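Open question from group meeting: does this chain pack into something compact, or does most of it stay loose? Before anyone orders reagents, we agreed to write out a predicted structure and look at it together. Recording both the input and the output here so the notebook holds the full record.
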Amino acid sequence: MINQPTGPTLLGFDVIVVGTVLAGLAAFAVMLAIYAAVTIRDPMAKRVKALEGRREQLKAGIVTSGSKKRTSLVRRTDTTDKVKEGLGRLNVLQESQIKDIQQKLAHAGYRNKELAVIIIGIRAILPIVIGITMATLIYWLEIWPDLSPMKRLGAFAISVFIAYKGPEIFLKNKADKRTKEIQKGLPDALDLLVICAEAGLTVDAAFNRVAKELGRAYPELGDEFALTAIELSFLNERKMAFNNLAYRVNLEAVKGVVTTMIQTERYGTPLASALRVLSAEFRNERMMRAEEKAARLPAIMTVPLIVFILPTLFVVILGPAACSISDNLVNK
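Structure tokens returned:
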């Protein structure tokens, strides 16, 4: 005999068992939330190793003298060499494509330039693998037999397109999040730079101090400023360090700061006054963005108000009256 559930059931499932499982998952989630709130993590801890590695590379003389071209700051690996050789045979590897992927990787926070070859290889191989897999599932195994031929073709085409665009979309989303985090802390960083410049610190010491002060609040910005301070200390041309900062951050405000720093280095103009003007402009831009979001809020809240709040109000207000009217009609 098949044992029937003794407790109440809903859609064939024992309500007590389902409730117990959900309660256990909720308790586990609460424990994770408490652990995440209690444990204090340093957001700059993982980035310190990469910065120290960059410092050691510059100390070891990986950057050549001014008469020679600068060599690659990242060592090549056997894996990237094999991938590059294979893509070269397929004639799918172009120099302009590599440079474009390298800049996207820099914007996303990945400084290993050789990863660009891996990304191009994934974009070339992943659509083929996903396409063969989806063709096998749709046309050979027929896991969705009720689909029409057009829907099957559409599912196959969408899966291949997502497989091809997936790595690029991932890099773009990560770069956008990183750019927004840097944009939030840039006015505060410029204010601290002004204070450091007026206190008599050098530019590399000022960048290093700002990176330490803002590292916990804005890890991405602190990481970039710390790396810029290291490059200012070791590179032969200080302009190269500022240009590297503008290359790694996809933000017009950072490019403006870099241009200001280069001009002050070249012409000897006061650094504190120029940075103070830039900081005021960035703060005004941040206030304007906040006002813009606040102005859009009534229009955004209209749809949730109509869909979720007004029906509830109608039920609460008109429900008792409708019940009383129905009772009177039934009694009559």
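Observations to bring back to the group:
The chain is about 75% helix and 0% strand.
The radius of gyration is 29 Å.
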